Amino acid sequence: MNIRLDKFLSSQTDYTRTDIKKLLWKRKISVDGKILRDGSIKIDPEASEIVADGRKIIYRDKVYIILNKPEGFVCATEDKREKTVMDLLGEDLKRKDIFPAGRLDKDTTGMVLITNDGPLSHQILSPKKHIPKYYIVKLAESFQNDYIRQFAEGITIDRGERCLPAKVRQCPDSENTALIELHEGKYHQIKRMFTAVENHVEKLCRIQMGNLPIPEKLGIGEYMEIMHKDVENLLKPTDFEEVFRNVSEKFSSYWINIL
Fold it and tell me: N or C end of the chain: which has fewer CB within 10 A?
């Protein structure tokens, strides 16, 4: 594959065209050790070593990053008033075409997928695809067993908006913590669902999307790049009971410390 040097840099980084021209003029771009000043030169990015301003640029067609989002960041590519999840990424992964596939509220923590794969993002967000998302919820009041039935029937939240059926279960050894499975993502949905059953969400953490859980070793605010074969787990069938068992096995030693 041959591509213009400037086009390659534009597609694989967050550099603007002006940035690239300046770097070329300052002799800060090299290909296989040779300094180049002409952005129109065609290169093979899969076979060449490209360095821009001391940064080695590795060709990636599709990018998949799992981020463990902390509180206080919004899921957006940019925001004039708030810090975004993109601010947490290192320079080596910043590029213009990546975005968070789905949103978490500013005060919600946990798993965010950042990618440039538009079709995959559509699958994740579409209720018709039935890709479940799993959350651990800390409630202000004790979990009530009747929530299981109410959520399964489809909660009607404020303004008469009806939610798709959802699954929920109280976490072990905790009166006010639960695991919930959703197949959609309405605005503040989980908070509004528990408000509808006269409870209040104090903490919320997304722990899994589809059959892809957040890695246990990934600390709050940390991220890791994953391979396409890992991403395929997003689309594999999953089972609420199995996810609940996995959460139960490590709840007291891991999840309770996050919440």
Answer: N
Q: What is the CATH number of the domain that holds 28?
A: 3.10.290.10
User: Do 144 and 45 sit in the same domain of this protein?
Assistant: no
CA 47 to chain centre: 30
Is-above-0.85 flag for pTM? yes
CB burial class (10 A; 0-12, 13-18, 19+) of residue 112? buried
Nearest Cα to Cα of residue 146 among 162, 165, 169, 163: 169
Residue in 44, 105, 107, 230 annotated catalytic: 105
Q: How many domains does the chain have?
A: 2
pLDDT tens string 222-259: 999 998 888 888 888 899 999 999 888 876 555 555 55
Active site residue 105: yes
Tens-digit pLDDT profile for residues 92-149: 888 899 999 988 999 999 999 999 998 888 888 776 777 899 999 999 999 999 999 9
Query: What percent helix, strand, coil does the chain show, rounded to 5?
Result: 30, 25, 45
